[in-house]
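#struct-pred

JT: dropping the chains for the assembly here, can someone run the whole complex?
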Amino acid sequence: MLELYDGGLDIPSILKKWYCQESTQNYGAFIPFVGTIRDEDGIDGLSFDIYEPILEKWFQGWQDKAKEKNAIIKMAHSRGDVLVHQSSYIAAIFSPKRRVALEFIDLFVEDFKASAPIWKYDLKNKKRIYALERSTRIKGSGLLGVST
Amino acid sequence: MLELYDGGLDIPSILKKWYCQESTQNYGAFIPFVGTIRDEDGIDGLSFDIYEPILEKWFQGWQDKAKEKNAIIKMAHSRGDVLVHQSSYIAAIFSPKRRVALEFIDLFVEDFKASAPIWKYDLKNKKRIYALERSTRIKGSGLLGVST
Amino acid sequence: MVKVEFLGPIQKESLNLKISNLQELATILQKTPEMTEWLANSAIAVNDTLVSSLDFALKDGDKVSMLPPVCGG
Amino acid sequence: MVKVEFLGPIQKESLNLKISNLQELATILQKTPEMTEWLANSAIAVNDTLVSSLDFALKDGDKVSMLPPVCGG
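RK: done, full complex below.
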């Protein structure tokens, strides 16, 4: 399940909803990862653009991988502006056993950072500044830049 | 912070409390681990004994390790009986950066399983049966069994 | 016609081009100096699937998307 | 006197013994056949700190705890 929200996430509500949705499904381990905007470099917050069609496909690929281990993944992300100390990201793994969950949450979050089609901007003085230096090229980038 | 409760844990309330406690402390990553009793082997639930003095010392050792990385750890566990589909365990890491949190939650949960002075019993037909075959000897066990 | 769209921070209007593969798109976009860095940085998707070869054939109605470096979370 | 307590599933009342090290405790407990498996399985703490040597000296008022295999979570 992939959920997108405008602005900061209501983390306690999302955690409660997900936990209750799965509480009788016999998952022994539940591991959420929550990302919260840090107050640093004088930013007022961050802002996000998302390209949903590719995000959905990327997420479905992970859901399929999880299913092979009898696990499931849930994820929510913010669109637009999110202020400092608000949260913009939550992902969670439910699995029968703990090792699968501990390994999946790490792999999932790292691949999310490297591959999910989401662009981050610093919010400073009402301006939206693309965070190029903190961004990661998607694997295979540069294809159209090759001189021939 | 180490919290012990009689019976199953109210996971949504604990998650909300912990999240709100730290939401302005500039932790970019928050990773809880929740353990829920699985319906298996015909058990009605599990039951737990805890030896608090050593649990507190063990937990404080981890809190000190976390502090070196500017992270903190919270944990709650059930005492006594916890029924199937209820949760008996939650631990969480808060850290400025995600790598520290992802690595700590794994190491912490595994060491918890291997070292925390907590004993587990299956609840079956109103009886409490020690789960010896699923338990782990604490490092250094067998000291008094050595013949001399 | 093939629709070419520029995602996230690339400030450029979509294009509709008569091209039959990605090589032709590369040749066209490389003529625009302000695109140089984006071309070097960005991944390419055709109909929302990432592709890895310039020979990738395009047909009428296809959508090409350019994805610059990402940073979710 | 040294207090010896048996934690978790070990169904045994605490003992108060006049002993000066863990070796003496081992000798006493090894005489009880139903303790054999617990002795082989359990870790030992003195005053709530785990110890790893039978030579560990004990003094009046110390508390020795026996911790059988654990399984939290």
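JT: nice. Chain D has two helices and five strands. The longest strand of chain D covers residues 2-6.
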